[in-house]
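seq as requested:
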Amino acid sequence: MSSTLLETASSLREEATRILDGRGLRSTLESFGRLVVHGSHALDLMVWRDLDLYLVPMASLHDPRWFFELGSRVANLLKPFRMSFRDETRLPGGGLPKGLYWGVYFSECATASWKIDIWAVDGVESSRLLGYQSWVAERLNPESRQKIMEIKAAVHLHPEYRRSFGAKEVYDAVLTGGISGTDAFWDHLGKVRIMQPKGVAGDPRREVHASSAYQSEGEKQ
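struct tokens:
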């Protein structure tokens, strides 16, 4: 595997760990429930500054007042320049988790902007979501890991990334479609979109996942 990709993944995981443990984000979130760090951090597939977190709360998802208190504490802790809220318990769909969401955008320094997705979900939804991650983890090997990271590194700045397609499409393309290389991925993605039901691929509610990585040159890793 490319030493640059390995170095990037290692560096970003170290940064994420400092945010979780050094800045106190983990303990802040764990005061509200059970925290699960998932996604590219858990799979060791990080190529940009994006951290995905699930929280199985002690409080009810149907009374979001506690979630706004959580958002206030996160804001005081990280001093984000932007936060976005969504309640997907009321209108679930579009491939998003069924739960409450905070998207947190903040800068560690002038050239290092992070986006953190915090999803509060119940135990059933958490198990469903983590089941897919386990499926991916079981199929990763040095070769598939390299293919996935190369494609992610090439496509994550695309304006439609995490809107009409995302990491799942990359994982599926490599692990089930045998895809290798960016050109082959774009071709594969086009074929998959043709087969999808109308409205699924481009559901605008997926925009809550949009990465801050492509917002400006100064925010890139």
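Confidence is low (pLDDT under 50) at residues 196-221.
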